[in-house]
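FIELD: query
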Amino acid sequence: MMAKGEAASVFGPGDHASTYGGNPLACAAGLAVAEYLSEHNVLENVRVRGEQLAAGLEDITNRYPSVLGETRGWGLLRGVVIKEDAGCTAAELVGDAMKEGLLLVAAGPSVVRFVPPLIVSEDEINDALARFEKAIEKRVGESS
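FIELD: result
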């Protein structure tokens, strides 16, 4: 590691090591990823699709207030709180979504997490939202 000034005093000998850090292949791969992100406006897509996802989740939350609580997150990393008295856990709702062809993640017992790829399209976000809502509709129908 090369540093000078205050930055040079952050790590002492043996504090930081990596088997692959700084090797030519790892550096070339990192550079290729950075160039792709920059040249293809990936961060702009994240911003726009993140806003789309947030708005869509907020709409679904408003339609199912007995099941869903707040939506939270930033960019494309979003979570929806499952209410305590919803009659299901986040894991169960993730399973329901999987049956609809949508892969989500449970973040603890009460949050369903959306983590789409950075290159997700507008149509793919719309499709994901529709599948999530269908899973909720089926869950609500089962508990009625």
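FIELD: remark
The two ends are 62 Å apart (CA to CA).
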